[in-house]
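Chain entry —
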Amino acid sequence: GALFASGEMQLPFVLQSAEIMKAAVAYLEPLMERVEGQQKGTIVLATVKGDVHDIGKNLVDIILTNNGYQVINLGIKVPLADMVAAAREHRAHAIGMSGLLVKSTVVMRENLEEMSRQGIDIPVMLGGAALTRNYVEDDCVAAYQSGRVAYARDAFDGLHLMDKVTGNGFDDYLAAIQAKRSGKARNTKRKLGQADERAFAPIDVRAVQARRRRLTQNVPVVEPPFWGARVIEAAPKAIIPFINERSLFQFQWGFRKQGKSLDDFLGWARQELRPIMKRMLALCDAEDILKPQAIYGYWKAAGQGNDLILFEPDGATEVARFALPRQPKDDGECIADFFRDIEDDERDMIGLQIVTVGQKASEVARLWFEDNRYQDYLYLHGLSVEMAEAMAEYTHKRIRAELGFASEDDRDLEKMLAQSYRGSRYSFGYPACPKLEDQAAILKLLDSERVGISLSDEYQLHPEQSTSAIVVLNPKAKYFSV
């Protein structure tokens, strides 16, 4: 842990060490006299309600367990009542809440508010990709009036905090943090998970129509090869060329540059990490773990104000409508502007796609985690996530090829993955189209059950390694933030 924190040891090797330690303890336990209260303390871990992501939480489980703590891992999509009940049953020293989504940060704050209403005072640790220290130490501290809450940047931060809790140093630690923050101006800007209301403010209709005309002028209407949706399957080997290796190695598997330049790191990764990727791909092929599938199709479309409207092939029968945000500034961008106005004689066209690598990847990863195969668990989870992204790129490229735009793709794969092609692919939940619930319309139009994709009550795609998107072919369409 100390070597990881100092940057001297890579995360996968930490997990390999944890595997060895777990095996050694399992071998020695039958030979050792068990003493009641051997464990250092107990924590309840859970991914919050509505969030299906568990890799971060499970890494915390691994590190805490191997450092002598009892971990009650409740899994994903866990309501607060279950966390509190487990904490009481096991007399836990703390509760750890995890979540990947921006929306999960709101759920965490709401959980803390409810715990305050109930007078619960157990220490709480919050972690997740979308969290920030400022959000936890401002908003979440204010929400949890009856107890104490801290931000855990990673699994080893979680271990450090548990040591503080069980060593009676948690209060002093939090007091020192608040002392440092005293006198600093609080963030009064938009909070995490909270939409900027200005992005949905009334618009100047004529100004928007003029902007839309500028963006669609001289962009011919494209006729797709078919209307509606089709299912495609791809052999894993077909989508391997679309894997973003940097994202896989650096962000999914957690390998750090350790002082190397990006070019040197990628050169090292090609030598040292590609063999691991190839081993995992061969294993997935032998055990039939990854099943890349997609549904994609075409609908007529138009813009109306900030709304993007989809139609049947007749161009008149509305089948879906998305209310989208606009950048709150003069001539601010909005996805709906990349389509001809509803008052125009012609209708534009939009592509829709959903992709998955199937449920088996999650099931096998869970079994490997339970079997203490921690390193391979990390490798498989990261690979399956990136394979889903690769399938999205593969499907998007197929759409561009069918419409006659493939020749505009950059021949350099890394540049193509960096959006060096015509148009853009937008997924709901990101700033330009933030409403996850809008995915429901996409899944309905594409009949997503045909490839086993469904939505949770909180509008999360299931299986986890799945993505959905709208495909905009206007050459001026690129990513932007709102």
Notes: The mean pLDDT is 89. The chain is about 40% helix and 15% strand. The CA atoms of residues 47 and 350 lie 35 Å apart.
